[in-house]
Amino acid sequence: MSMAEMARLSLGPGRCIAQVSAIGFDLAAVEISRYLLHGATLVLRDLEDPFDHLHDVHTIMTTPSFIAACSPDVVLELRTLVLGGVSIPQALADAWAHKQLFIYSPSECGPFSTPIQLQQGDKVTIGRRLPHVDVYILDHHQCPMADGYWNRSATPARKAFMPNPFRTEQEKIMYCMVTWTTIRGFRIELAEVEKAVRQADKAISNTAVIVADQLRIVAFMTPDDVDLGALLQALCPLLPSYVRPTNIILVPELPQSASMKVDRIALQTLAVSITPGQGELPETPTEKIIAKIWRELLQLPDERRTRRDDDFMGIGGYSVPAIKAARQILKPLRQNIPLMLIICQTALSDVPRTIDRFQAPEEPSARCPSPSAGPSAILRPFRGQSATARW
């Protein structure tokens, strides 16, 4: 980061910067070293509540997915917000655009190379390059994009390609076109998930992976006699946790469209139908409150009724909404219950029991399941077998 950019972000003595990123994330190097070298104060996050330290900071650098779980009303001292790493919804940009300095770019390095400074009412774009930065479009061989079409030399290139997408008019800037799927704030290539599934079990003859409800990764595969437990275990070293399928459905054959390709629209319908139709509904007032909070946070469809045996991660949850859900659950209780104690309980029926069991702060806290225990699977009949993975 150049001195000019540091000055633009007003990073220096007297400024409090939020430490948000995990230590293994590349942005952590910027938070820890660059800020301190310029005299700013780094405010460390609470391991149990990653939002608690944001109240008094002046600058936050993070992803749109993280900031979406935080309300602008609780960061009253915030003056500079820098977002990158994933595309930002227009509604989220509008909610935070009133801050003094709001910088955004869809890529990880974009805020320091091709940023856009968003103000109230601005439309989200990919930004424009900084004066000291050159932008090139390259393939995986580090070669630039060719002019024209492959084997169609007669077609003039000027009809398909603009000479420079970074024009002077703001409304003419090219918008971000991402072919990857974004789920839970992560960019995911579904073809890579399908490849890993086939690699995990050589007996799998065909597979298709879709995103259902904009929250769940659902993998369909044939034949319908695959060992689901062994498959879940084999996927652990092949895929990071956020990419592993939430549901695995074994079917005799994948539906096909009229063009003899996998009918992914039909798979979307099947993905909705795997939601368990039986099971006890929330009974106690506490269970009903928790179910309501989960439904609102995960934006579950109306036909998807939350049940006592539901697992937060199994119905589309992940770490950031889990923290937000725990905060909302504990807020009306007005008790000194550790936040992590609630986060670790992912089954709906377990949360009220955990709250009732908690007597005093000195009692031993509940621990999260050990990662060495591996994933668990809930098997349910569905034209074969299905599994809901708890990673």
UniProtKB/TrEMBL annotation:
Species this chain originates from: Aspergillus viridinutans
Protein name: AMP-dependent synthetase/ligase domain-containing protein
Phosphoprotein recorded as keyword: yes
Record-level GO cellular component terms: cytoplasm
Spans annotated as Disordered: 361-391
Keywords assigned by UniProt, alphabetized: Ligase, Phosphopantetheine, Phosphoprotein
Family: Belongs to the NRP synthetase family.
GO terms of biological process kind: amino acid activation for nonribosomal peptide biosynthetic process; secondary metabolite biosynthetic process
Residues of the AMP-dependent synthetase/ligase domain: 9-148
GO molecular function term, any single one: ligase activity
InterPro entries registered for this protein in UniProt: ACP-like_sf, AMP-bd_C_sf, AMP-dep_synth/lig_dom, ANL_N_sf
One of the Pfam families matching this protein, by short name: AMP-binding
